[in-house]
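To whoever is on call:

I kicked off a structure prediction for a single chain this morning and the downstream step that reads the tokens threw a length-mismatch warning. I double-checked the sequence; it's 221 residues and nothing unusual in it as far as I can see. Pasting both halves so you can look.
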Amino acid sequence: MYTERPSRLAGAVVWTGDGSGRVLPDGCMDLLWHEGRLLVAGPDTRAHVTAGAPGTWVGLRFYPGSAPAFLGVPAHELRDLRVELADLWPVPEVRRLRSRIAGAPDLGTALEEVVAERAAPVDPVLRALVTRLDAGRPVAASADELGLGARQLHRRSLVAFGYGPKTLARILRLRRALALARSGVPYAETAARSGFADQAHLARDVRELAGLPLGRLLAAG
């Protein structure tokens, strides 16, 4: 069973689940707690499928682009990876945090507190980029509106999101399409409203990014 709630950290989400299922790309990174371990889920470029380890998983999903400032590691170094926090930070510090979280009355709140102590505000330019791309604005137009050159935008996107702005736009477009399709909007209309060239284009992106045909993906929940 999976549940989530908005975090008190801007744009973040706290979630609890059994760790099983198909995790689709979403432009985000997560700080994870499982059976006394602290892990980091890097930015995905394709679906991450896991059977789940025994026990409950608790995670804090960062707003897109905000995790690297907390971790001190560029997002592209963690692309499509799940790593122990102790591989990124000094072991004594991670051990102290594990002990602190394990003794907390609420694991999700404890993760929020840990992140809040060293999180930096999201770069307003990057937040504006996410907002524009999520609304379907073209990458080039968004860069012009934000006063960024193509190379600068690509470099900053790699650090913040783990991949370039075109990949981020593609992932956000897929998220918009899935939200429409799950609400019952016909596939052809979903494709048009989400910014795909046609229904076949939508079907190709779903297969490539989610690893399943659209119908099977929706049936899986």
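Update from on-call: the warning came from a stale cache, not from the record. Cleared it. Sanity check on the structure: The two ends are 12 Å apart (CA to CA).
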